[in-house]
Design brief:
Radius of gyration: 19 Å
Number of helices: 11
Mean pLDDT: 97
Number of strands: 15
Bound molecules: nicotinamide-adenine-dinucleotide, uridine-5'-diphosphate-4-deoxy-4-fluoro-alpha-D-galactose
Strand order of the largest sheet: 3-2-1-4-5-7-12
Structural class: alpha/beta
Length: 335
């Protein structure tokens, strides 16, 4: 029996596959390579010394997806495949609703048809209205952009599927800010174009691809005026998927968990920690706030600790060091 990983050649998927293979799971990957490179497969093999199946398939294509279910014995699905750029989703909402929502509908239809009813889904902290600083799974929901809406809508769709048939087991994981890379430096986040997110921007400044970091706002109500987020090492996040998978395989229920560290760091905290752990100065300028940003957001992950037995192990220094190692060894990403 194998675990099907959709979006498995992407950033979080590739790290999760390493953990799955290390734990002895059989893995089948489906990805259309719209935001990832085929080279990642070699890197995963290099790290794990294990083999797995890969299908270049778009989850929107039902026939091709069915073929994967027909030819493999799938036990459960970890569903990462999706588009994730907030700004792009505002410009191209139809593309986001089609890819993320229709893609998930097609996947669930095929799963239902082949009687595979165990699913772990990548949701996001972006589903919260951000009316509290420390967010529990019960905090108020409300997205502010099409990307966030797709995550909220998919969560609702999955709840409705479970309501109609409680032989499903579904786990919704709301990630906070995943950063870092595998300690080997062989896999990491391959940001295409100008990075939207803080850590890839910092590493690109460090490697000389960008001149300086723009810090979006220094007048927030925080200890140094810059925005505070809950950064989580991608390997800790990947391990959270194994804990969630284990529970999903054994219980027929739908549950939601935050995956974050519960620790908030400001933009300047990250910049200073990066310099401390790598010895590289990051030049920066203070700019206006970025529209839509909140001042502070971090996770209350006590539910994941309690129910999944999951605990993060890596701190901000590991996140900076590993992000840098990946960038330094792969200045052009997987190219
Ligand atoms: P990623 O872009 O690196 O990986 C997503 C993968 O899905 C890519 O390899 C892409 O080619 C593939 N894909 C997209 N649409 C597809 C389709 N129709 N058919 C087949 N493959 C398709 O992104 P990531 O950072 O690894 O994120 C994985 C999941 O986690 C996404 O659903 C994302 O929304 C969610 N998430 C990410 C973050 C983050 O900050 N990285 C935060 C919260 C939630
Ligand atoms: N920041 C800068 N300069 C940059 C990039 C970011 O100062 O060049 C700041 C932001 O203003 C924010 C912090 O760094 O204060 C973190 O920003 P990111 O873009 O890395 O992360 P966000 O918290 O804004 O967004 C992330 C994901 C979104 C998701 C959101 C909520 O990228 O997809 O978390 O979960 F919607």
């Amino acid at each position: 029996m194998a675990i099907l990983v959709t979006g498995g050649t992407g950033y979080i998927g590739s790290h999760t596959i390493v953990e799955l293979l290390d734990e002895g799971y059989d893995v089948v990957i489906v990805d259309n390579l719209s935001n990832s490179k085929i080279e990642v497969l070699q890197r995963i093999k290099e790290i794990t010394k294990k083999d797995f199946k890969f299908y270049e398939v778009d989850i929107l294509c039902k026939e091709a997806l069915e073929e994967v279910f027909k030819t493999n014995s799938i036990e459960a699905v970890i569903h990462f495949a999706g588009l994730k750029a907030v700004g792009e989703s505002v410009a191209k909402p139809l593309m986001y609703y089609n890819n993320n929502i229709v893609g998930t509908l097609v996947l669930c239809e095929v799963m239902d048809k082949y009687n595979v009813k165990k699913l772990v889904f990548s949701s996001s902290a972006t589903v919260y209205k951000m009316s509290d600083y420390s967010l529990t799974e019960d905090s108020e929901l409300g997205a502010t952009n099409p990307y966030g809406n797709t995550k909220l809508m998919i969560e609702q769709i999955l709840r409705d599927i479970y309501m109609s048939d409680n032989s499903w087991g579904i786990t919704l994981l709301r990630y906070f800010n995943p950063v870092g890379a595998h300690e080997s430096g062989l896999i990491g986040e391959d940001a295409v174009g100008t990075p939207n997110n803080l850590m890839p921007y910092i590493t690109q400044v460090a490697v000389g691809k960008r001149r300086e970091l723009s810090i979006f706002g220094s007048d927030y109500n925080t200890h140094d005026g810059t925005g505070i987020r809950d950064y989580i090492h991608v390997v800790d996040l990947a391990k959270g998927h194994l804990k969630a998978l284990n529970k999903t395989l054994n219980e027929n229920q739908i549950e939601v968990y935050n995956l974050g560290t519960g620790k908030g760091y400001s933009v300047l905290d990250v910049v200073h920690k990066f310099t401390k752990s790598t010895g590289i100065d990051i030049p920066y300028t203070i700019c206006n706030r970025r529209p839509g940003d909140v001042s502070v957001c971090y996770a209350d992950s006590s539910k994941a600790r309690r129910d999944l037995g999951w605990e993060f192990e890596k701190g901000l220094e590991d996140m900076c060091r590993d992000s840098w190692k990946w960038q330094m060894l792969n200045p052009l990403g997987y190219e």
